[in-house]
Amino acid sequence: MVVVFRVDASLTIGTGHVMRCLTLADALREQGAECHFLCRAHPGHLIEAIRAQGFDTDTLPLQPETLEERQDTPRLAHADWLGASWQEDARWSRELIEGLRPDWLVVDHYALDRCWEEAVLPPGCRLLVIDDLADREHRCDLLLDQNLGRQADDYAGLVPERCTRLIGPRYALLRPEFACLRETSLARRAMPRLKRLLISMGGIDKDNATGTVLDALGDCPLPEDCRISVVMGGNAPWLAQVKDQAATMPWPTEVAVNVTDMAERMVQADLAIGAAGSTSWERCCLGLPTLMVVLAVNQRIIAGALQAMGAGGLIGGSDTLRFALPEALRALLTPNTLTTMSRAAADLTDGQGLTRLCTAMHAHSQAVSDE
């Protein structure tokens, strides 16, 4: 089976779309699939990181000047994320995809919709769309939206009736180590105590929410023996400043970059302060209590739903957390609060979403061969 991924990372887009596609690509490769990536070289791209994991990656040209040239379809809310008009992107992508002759095309991009998909998809190729927004049409065979609060009916009229919709955190794309460490992580939370604090605002954190959190912790009632671990990506624009700031913290504070052991770090953490993006499902799988920061519009639904379920505490956006964090932390340290939040989070996903998606893809492929 040949699978082609169309996905981007950038300072604006972040790294989460590429990371979840890499998780899927790793699993498919283990099952014998040949995986290729098509990416545009935006500032903050992850093209070399994808290649470092052994996947062939073609680079699409950055052509922002074409964005306004051809708008014969309604402009999408995230059209600027593409770095070219959708027509130019489709032209370049189609040439590359036709040469690869894929069985599946996987699209994880807010700036692409049915128009692009119909222009690019080769005959006989199946389409998987990974989405979080439910704000545009697709012509896909499979659709995955792993977000809490989303319903299958949210995509009514946006996807074909025959499309299989995989909805909710049950299908969250987590690397296998999260499911493997789930039992260990949940067991160590039976008697919670705040000794290890994990801070993770995504791979980019373009507005330096990490630095704001470190500032706000100065007014927080952390135990004297608490240790703080900050995780950042190598492309984060504020990395050097955060490292300098960490050196002045009242508690031992490390800044870890481009980590490959995030699951182990979450297991050892007693509390996380993190962005309400796709990493939310990693934390939930491991029952890690979390105070969430909303850093993008699409994270509001996730954060609100998690808070409503008691599976996380919401401290707002980066503009409010300087004042909201101390109060939220005090409330979280009341008796049984950490335990209750941990259990509520763990109930949302078991870490097997990757297996469920691969099974669905193979079922669709088998159906094609039987026709």
TrEMBL record:
One of its GO terms (molecular function) is hexosyltransferase activity. It holds the Pfam family Glyco_tran_28_C. SUPFAM superfamilies: UDP-Glycosyltransferase/glycogen phosphorylase. Keywords: Hydrolase. Its EC number is 3.6.1.57. Residues 255-345 form the Glycosyl transferase family 28 C-terminal domain. Substrate binds at R175, E282. The active site is at H17 (proton acceptor). Transmembrane segments: none annotated. The keyword Hydrolase applies. NCBIfam families: PseG. This is UDP-2,4-diacetamido-2,4, 6-trideoxy-beta-L-altropyranose hydrolase. It comes from Pistricoccus aurantiacus.
